[in-house]
């Protein structure tokens, strides 16, 4: 082949490759991938998430995360994540990779007694693709794993296995969408599905629904009710699944949004009805939704309640009575059955009582509402006489238990949903006929009703019912604590051990309710049910949330105990608003999430002193804080580090805590002001530094000391009331040039104006009681001195730094008059107050001229907020019982969020400032 021909063919090949690449980019890659098209049609459940960090944070704040970590599946997942971190040499690699991607997770039944999970994660950039390839290459080099590829119907499948363990993973990359599963069968099903791209997806009925447009949605859940009994069959016995299937055929499929909030998980959405002939929906179509009125006769030992709201109860039975054994019936019975059915309406329900052990069959009851209970009692008496049943009865309190003499009587009255009562007994309780499958179950029930141990008398159960939908066609209510033995009995043998291992997770939410509410236009085509799935644990926490004011603007968290401290705002990664730490009068510290829910509470031995410090101790991020006799460290879940609290000597009463700066090397150093002029220095292991036990000074401290690190050296700056300033090293020796005099007494703290690399280039500013702003270096030199405002013997000057400690203003108080000045001496505002006591001042600077000044008058408990022009915001002060308020600015909405305490209430509201 000639050289020219070779060059020509090479150029032609490169041109063809370039054309193919351009074609791919402009045609194939330009068309977005529908992630739902990658989900096999046999999916039972599909979850979608778009903000994994926020979801994890909510799981931790609602304490579900701690319960999930006890589940073997999630423990295996955690081990996998830890392995990926170790192979990639990073931390939180998986969580950062997932980020805010649209991640789909589907659950499929893959065999008898087996289900598997399929996950789908988009790859958003070349960098992320390289991360995946690097991870696969690292696994291929590791002798513990085996990586191989194989072709399946023209698609390359990558299989990663761990020989000898039976564990493995199969994945494909379809147009930068990673689809992987422990089951290779599911990945193969994805490949087969891709061969028919125009086939409707599992979410085709909900194409116009995007719950993620709503606020605070953590995830969505797609449910295939037609396949749900198949999944439940993996866990439960066939007779149990049969009963569940009789109820689930009310619906075909549904999509729900999920929100995690404090003591509950709420899933709201829409469900398409099951329209096949003979379905429960077709029987009940057009029937009105009803309230759950039978709470007054529902025993507190109820484990499971299946409640149906309808019109005439005979609609469930149909035109002809269900007669499983017609040869045993006396013809005279049929008219009585029809008369009994005609008197039943509005509510029918099945209730299961909590058995004492899993070996004991649970008691089962059928409850039916009747408008004329006395007439129904007469008809039952006639029925007993016709069939020859014993007229004797058993009395339980004011109620009577009678034999019915008719097998399967509940099913004969209201249809096959109530089959299984072979020799039923009956009692009339209020407006309800209550049938029991044996006398013992009905007797126990009636004893509870007579003793008023019923739902309507339980504040916990009433609060739960208030969270549910008031009107519904179907309500399935589960008490997981009462149902524990019921579930153990219903599970297949190989699944019982798993339930026992995961008991803490299962009982995390003892109150569960699933409800379907029909649409008002149900007779029209396309009408859907509104569905709610509520998982709740009783609100035994310290506070209850409610709207603020008659307009509902803002929110209030009402605590059981009055709040004693100021709200301390703490930033939360991934959240637009901060969390809040607040202490009540019983010395309990509460953490309130950005969603206004108390996530944890921790009792302290006394009120907090000094500032709270965010630090990392032994690899755990959290909060360093002090009480009078102890130093504490609480992580972000409110748990103390093993070596904390640190106990101070009995003679020490701490008045403040200063901590070495974040990232200053080594473990944090803790400087404790011990009253008067005494200072103590510790590390986080409780070791005391020499010459600091204590460091005694001649005068009282003017403010909390500053802990600085300059050029790798610790510098502890101490201001005394007599106007002298000291700078000490870690060994307690004074730096050269110190002490220095500020020329007058001091009443407030210092601020670092310039953080330099050396002592001589680091400048600090203070304001003395002669109204002078003094700047000095850590070399002991006075750099400048200028008067900010005039002074007198009764005036008090304080330097007020902003929340970031980058700038400051100067406050001058004299009697009831308070004035604020810039560092240059320009007067910002002045206000005369009724009281003459000290008024705490706060300065907030959010940049671009967005400045707010807060002044709290402690006597009447009022907080005055002024803007940068000195105008009073809102035209009047806000009620505040703490010395300080919290204020944050949300740039996205241009709204200020005000946090304040008023008695037992933590209040927050949005303010729009011009």
TrEMBL record:
Gene3D superfamilies: YVTN repeat-like/Quinoprotein amine dehydrogenase. SUPFAM superfamilies: 3-carboxy-cis,cis-mucoante lactonizing enzyme. This is DUF3352 domain-containing protein. It comes from Hymenobacter canadensis. The lineage of its organism: Bacteria, Pseudomonadati, Bacteroidota, Cytophagia, Cytophagales.
């Amino acid at each position: 082949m000639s050289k020219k021909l070779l060059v020509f063919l090479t150029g032609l090949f490169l041109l063809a490759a370039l054309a193919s690449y351009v074609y791919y980019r402009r045609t194939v890659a330009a068309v977005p991938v529908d992630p739902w098209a990658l989900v096999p049609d046999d999916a039972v459940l599909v979850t979608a998430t778009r903000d994994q960090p926020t979801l994890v944070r909510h799981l931790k704040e609602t304490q579900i995360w701690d319960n999930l970590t006890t589940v073997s599946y999630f423990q295996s997942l955690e081990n996998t994540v830890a392995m990926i971190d170790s192979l990639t040499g990073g931390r939180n690699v998986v969580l950062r990779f997932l980020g805010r991607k649209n991640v789909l997770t589907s659950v499929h039944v893959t065999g008898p007694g087996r289900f598997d999970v399929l996950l789908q994660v988009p790859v958003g950039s070349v960098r992320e693709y390289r991360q995946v390839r690097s991870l696969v290459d690292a696994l291929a080099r590791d002798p513990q794993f085996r990586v191989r590829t194989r072709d399946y119907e023209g698609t390359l499948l990558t299989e990663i296995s761990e020989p000898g363990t039976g564990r493995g993973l199969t994945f494909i990359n379809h147009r930068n969408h990673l689809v992987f599963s422990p089951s290779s069968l599911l990945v193969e099903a994805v490949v087969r599905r891709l061969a028919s791209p125009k086939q409707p997806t599992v979410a085709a009925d909900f194409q116009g629904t995007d719950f993620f447009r709503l606020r605070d949605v953590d995830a969505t859940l797609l449910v295939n009710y037609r396949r749900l009994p198949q999944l439940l069959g993996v866990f439960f016995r066939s007779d149990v699944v049969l009963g569940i299937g009789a109820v689930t055929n009310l619906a075909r499929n549904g999509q729900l949004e999920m929100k995690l909030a404090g003591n509950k998980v709420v899933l709201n959405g829409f469900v398409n009805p099951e329209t096949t002939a003979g379905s429960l929906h077709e029987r009940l179509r057009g029937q009105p939704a009803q309230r759950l009125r039978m709470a007054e006769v529902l025993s507190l030992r109820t484990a499971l309640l299946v409640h149906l709201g309808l019109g005439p109860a005979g609609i469930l039975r149909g035109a002809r009575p269900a007669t499983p054994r017609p040869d045993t019936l006396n013809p005279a019975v049929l008219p009585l059955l029809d008369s009994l059915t005609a008197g039943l309406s509005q509510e029918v329900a099945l209730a299961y009582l909590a058995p004492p052990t899993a070996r004991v069959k649970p008691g089962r009851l059928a409850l039916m509402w009747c408008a004329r209970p006395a007439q129904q009692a007469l008809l039952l008496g006639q029925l007993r006489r016709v069939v020859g049943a014993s007229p004797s009865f058993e009395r339980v309190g004011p109620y009577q238990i009678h034999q019915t003499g008719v097998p399967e009587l509940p099913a004969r009255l209201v249809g096959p949903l109530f089959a299984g009562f072979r020799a039923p007994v009956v009692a009339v309780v209020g407006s309800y006929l209550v049938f029991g499958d044996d006398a013992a179950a009905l007797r126990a029930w009636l004893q509870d009703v007579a003793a008023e141990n019923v739902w309507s008398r339980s504040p916990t159960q009433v609060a739960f019912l208030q969270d549910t939908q008031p009107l519904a066609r179907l309500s399935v209510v589960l008490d997981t604590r009462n149902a524990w033995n019921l579930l153990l009995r219903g599970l297949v043998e190989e699944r019982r051990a798993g339930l026992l291992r995961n008991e803490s997770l299962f009982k995390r939410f003892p109150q569960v309710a699933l409800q379907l509410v029909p649409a008002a236009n149900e007779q029209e085509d396309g009408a859907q049910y509104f569905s709610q799935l509520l998982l709740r644990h009783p609100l035994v926490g310290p506070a209850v949330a409610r709207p603020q004011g008659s307009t509902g603007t803002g929110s209030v968290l009402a605590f059981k105990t009055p709040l004693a401290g100021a709200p301390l705002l703490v930033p939360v990664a991934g959240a637009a608003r901060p969390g809040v730490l607040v202490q009540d009068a019983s010395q309990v510290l509460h953490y309130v999430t950005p969603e206004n829910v108390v996530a944890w509470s921790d009792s302290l031995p006394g009120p907090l002193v000094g500032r709270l410090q965010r630090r990392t101790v032994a690899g755990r991020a959290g909060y360093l804080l002090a009480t009078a006799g102890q130093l504490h460290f609480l992580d972000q879940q409110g748990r103390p580090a093993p070596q904390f609290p640190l106990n101070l000597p009995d003679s020490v009463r701490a008045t403040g805590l200063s901590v070495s700066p974040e990232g200053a090397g080594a473990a944090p150093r803790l400087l404790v002001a011990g009253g008067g002029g005494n200072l103590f220095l510790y590390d986080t292991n409780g070791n005391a530094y020499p010459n600091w036990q204590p460091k005694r000074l001649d005068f009282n401290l003017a403010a909390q000391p500053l802990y600085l690190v300059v050029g790798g050296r610790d510098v502890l700056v101490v201001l005394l009331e007599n106007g002298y300033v000291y700078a000490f090293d870690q060994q307690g020796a004074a730096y050269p040039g110190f002490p220095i005099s500020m020329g007058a007494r001091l009443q407030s703290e210092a601020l670092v104006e310039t953080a330099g690399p050396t002592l001589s280039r680091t400048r600090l500013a203070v304001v003395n009681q002669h109204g002078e702003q003094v700047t000095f270096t850590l070399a002991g030199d006075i750099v400048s001195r200028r008067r900010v405002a005039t002074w007198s013997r009764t005036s008090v000057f304080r330097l007020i730094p902003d929340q970031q400690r980058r700038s400051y203003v100067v406050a001058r108080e004299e009697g009831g008059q308070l004035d604020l000045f810039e560092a240059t001496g320009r007067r910002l505002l002045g206000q005369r107050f009724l009281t003459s006591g000290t008024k705490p001042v706060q300065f907030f600077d959010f940049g671009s001229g967005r400045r707010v000044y807060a002044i709290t008058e402690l006597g009447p408990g009022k907080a005055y907020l002024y803007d940068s022009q000195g105008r009073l915001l809102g035209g009047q002060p806000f009620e505040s019982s703490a010395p300080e308020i919290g204020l944050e600015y949300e740039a996205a909405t241009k709204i200020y969020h005000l946090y304040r305490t008023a008695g037992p209430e933590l209040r927050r509201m949005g303010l729009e400032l011009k």
